[in-house]
Amino acid sequence: MDDTRPGPEPTELVGRWHLERTVQDRRHGRSGTVTGTLRIEPGPDGLVWAESGLLVWQGRTVPVHRTLQVRPAGRGWEVTFEDGRPFHPWVPGTWVDHLCGADHYRGLVEVGPDRRRVDVTWVTTGPTKDDVLRTRLTRTP
């Protein structure tokens, strides 16, 4: 996304979003898609980031969901898993890293200047992974 600027607060993104994600397993030459919704809402410790949708993978369609927390941390924000484990700092426009066992997740959040579009990219590498996930979020009324 080339029309972005770093630094919007996650509170600027509260609302409902349409979610389109591509999932590429580069190691095995497979790909799939997720279509669904994202809700970003105030929560007890910051914001709740709740995704739900349908994954189409290898000819099967299965429901998927994920809930993250976006919480104030020091002078900024951090993204945590639902159970509170750290995931990554909230720094749109900057690549962030997350280690999970032997796997390395490298992610980028890009927020459009009008706050109506967000692109999220995750590249995962490890002994058994070589994946790229690209998500386009579009604000819905």
From TrEMBL:
InterPro entries: DUF6314. Residues 13-139 form the DUF6314 domain. Pfam families: DUF6314. This is DUF6314 domain-containing protein.
